[in-house]
């Protein structure tokens, strides 16, 4: 079993990731949370937790960890401090501790934030974090979904390096894609976009070059 640190475990998508990892035969989730009062819910599930604030030093968070999913976000409150610099801090810690794969939850539009009508500051922060990861030397996958919905997941997506259209995707299917991206036979050193679609997630990932 590999230990998977989930940054942003207390978020809506983060909790879905934790549940998937908890039920996996391959992975053991470690929930990274920012506040003491967020620990109990994960402990009640039998999930290990670690306190870590992405706006501060996080080098302790990657000790004993094999792989990382970065699903944290500031919700627009501090996109530079959390979504950008927080990601960089965790990437740096991952390099020191020899993390074997770093899976980044990004966003469609992060490749060209200057073209966005809104959320430019957020997309620029995501862009900078993605670029930092690409040049880090870590094995990585950068997953860029469209607009997130709370619809029930279908287990099927549309996945391309660049989809050239807008759309949405359920948090369920995003979480599934992130977890599947952890596997050693999943694509690495790659960036791709996902929307709701008709191709089973595993097959879609297999088709990535």
UniProtKB/TrEMBL annotation:
Pfam families: NAD_binding_10
Domain spans labelled NAD(P)-binding: 8-184
Highest taxon, organism lineage: Bacteria
SUPFAM superfamilies membership: NAD(P)-binding Rossmann-fold domains
Record protein name field: SDR family oxidoreductase
Organism: Dokdonia ponticola
